Each structure stands twice: as structure tokens, then as C-alpha cells.
Automatic annotation (TrEMBL), chain A:
It comes from the Bacteria. This is RsbT antagonist protein RsbS. Pfam families: STAS (PF01740). CDD domains: STAS_RsbR_RsbS_like. Residues 2-113 form the STAS domain. Coiled coil: none annotated.
TrEMBL record, chain B:
One of its GO terms (molecular function) is kinase activity. The keyword Kinase applies. SMART domains: HATPase_c (SM00387). Residues 28-128 form the Histidine kinase/HSP90-like ATPase domain. It comes from Cnuella takakiae. This is Serine/threonine-protein kinase RsbT. InterPro entries: HATPase_C_sf, HATPase_dom. The keyword Kinase applies. It holds the Pfam family HATPase_c. Keywords: Kinase, Transferase.
Length: 133, 128
């Protein structure tokens, strides 16, 4: 498996990382996501890392990069589902994931994204208009 | 275990986890150990061009733990003290690898000879 699937849900892109990542896979995800943001005009990116048993400095950097890249592409990023042991390890490692918003689960993450993007956007989720402005 | 490619990293992490589970290490300590292992394996691939990783179950008195040894025959590290500082990196990374790894484990030892290679040994005690 060489790619992490990216799902589109209305204005959002949804990524669920289900396998332990090696570096190349993480880099692919980074570039795929940024391209998808550009192609679809998505306003939000939700990354579910609940299945990740570890996040090391490289993976942490990729998550940070995705957040910053999306930001300059006018999209917000929320990371959800971090395991407690992963959070403890990240902080001891010295990685604070500054600039990345997090939420406990997908539901809260979605709510946070919608809140961030604001009510001016049309947020009907199953509609397939590619955000013509 | 011989580590030559990025794809070798995930199976290696899984092996470390198996050992850690076998001695009954807590989830938090497992996660710290595996994260430390992941950092060191990446260093070995990136700077040492691959190498060998050894996983052993060790004990000291009543304490059980896992010892990991990473050895490569790469260019070696010139200034270990500098390499152990937070934020120092010769590559394009955050420079958290070595000092961060040291914080995650119970014991950390690094030996390096320029031109000959680097060996890093870490131990994580079950309750440490």
C-alpha cells in the first residue's frame, strides 16, 4: 500500500491513517493532501490519527507541515484522535505541534472545523459543488 | 535485524513492540521505546546508510527491560556533544532526534568514530 486515501466530504477532506507510516508514505500524504486542497478548493482538512501507535519527530513534522501548507492554501487543519501515550511521548520528545489544532474525536474535530471556517460558508456536507465562489 | 530501506522500519518497530509486550511493559513506556527506536533507525538510515539493529530482553536485579543496539558503518559523528543538543541538526530536520530520544529512554549510550561508524545503545526498563 503506497498511498493513504483522502476522502472528500463537502468542503472538507478527511484522512484516516490506518497503517503505521513509513517516511515515504507520510511524504506522499503531505503532497497528495496539498494537491487535493488546491484541486477541490476544500476549506478544511481533518486527519484522524487514532490508529497510529506512535508519532515520531518525522511524522510530527509532516503533520505540522500539512497544517502550515493547508493554511496558506486557505484551509484549516484539525488532527483528531491522538492516543494518550502518543501525546505523552510527543511532549517528552520535545515536539509541541504548534500551529496544529487538535480535537479528541472526529465529531469534535468536524465541529471545530466548521466553527473555524465560519458560518458564511455553505456547509451542506453531501452536496457535490466544488465551492464556486 | 538488518535495516537497509525505509520499509524495514515498520517491521522493526513491530518486533520491538512484541518484545516490550512480552516483558509486560506499560503502553506509555512501550510507546516511548518504539518512538525512540524509530528515531534512531531513521538516523541510521539517513546518516549511516543503513545498519544493524539488535533487540534484547535484559534484566538488572528485579528490573526487566529491553535493550536496543543500533550500529552503522557510516561517516560517524564528529562532535557528539553538539549532536546531543536540542535543535542541532546537520540534515534538514528539527534536531530533536538524539536529545529527544535520550529523554524517552532509561539509559542512552552513543559511541562514534569518524569514518568508522556509530553505535547507539538504549535501554528502557519496564518501570522506568
Amino acid at each position: 500500500m503506497d498511498r493513504i486515501p483522502i476522502l472528500r466530504m463537502g468542503n472538507f477532506l478527511l484522512v484516516t491513517i490506518q497503517v503505521d507510516l513509513y517516511d515515504r508514505l507520510a511524504l506522499n500524504l503531505e503532497s497528495d493532501l496539498v494537491q487535493m486542497v488546491s484541486k477541490t478548493g476544500a476549506r478544511g482538512v481533518l486527519i484522524d490519527i487514532s490508529a497510529l501507535s506512535i508519532v515520531d519527530s518525522f511524522m510530527g513534522r509532516i503533520i505540522g507541515n500539512i497544517g502550515s501548507m493547508s493554511k496558506i492554501m486557505d484551509a484549516e487543519t484539525v488532527v483528531v484522535g491522538m492516543q494518550p501515550a502518543v501525546a505523552i511521548t510527543l511532549i517528552e520528545l520535545g515536539l509541541e505541534l504548534k500551529g496544529v489544532s487538535t480535537a479528541l474525536n472526529v465529531e469534535k474535530g468536524m465541529a471545530l472545523l466548521q466553527h473555524k471556517i465560519g458560518s458564511s460558508e455553505d456547509l451542506e456536507e453531501d452536496q457535490d459543488d466544488s465551492s464556486v465562489e | 535485524m538488518v535495516i537497509q530501506r525505509e520499509q524495514d522500519v515498520v517491521p522493526f518497530r513491530n518486533r520491538v513492540k512484541e518484545y516490550a509486550v512480552k516483558i509486560g511493559m506499560s503502553l506509555v513506556n512501550q510507546t516511548k521505546l518504539i518512538t525512540a527506536a524509530s528515531e534512531l533507525v531513521r538516523n541510521m538510515l539517513k546518516y549511516g546508510g543503513g545498519g544493524e539493529a539488535l533487540i534484547e530482553a535484559v534484566s538488572k536485579g528485579r528490573e526487566n527491560g529491553i535493550r536496543l543496539t543500533f550500529s552503522d558503518k557510516g561517516p560517524g559523528i564528529k562532535d557528539i556533544q553538539q549532536a546531543m543538543k536540542d535543535g542541532f541538526s546537520t540534515g534538514k530536520s528539527l534536531g530533536l532526534g538524539l536529545p529527544g530520544t535520550k529523554r524517552l529512554v532509561s539509559e542512552f549510550d552513543i559511541k562514534s568514530a569518524v569514518g568508522k561508524g556509530t553505535t547507539v545503545t538504549i535501554i528502557k526498563w519496564k518501570n522506568g
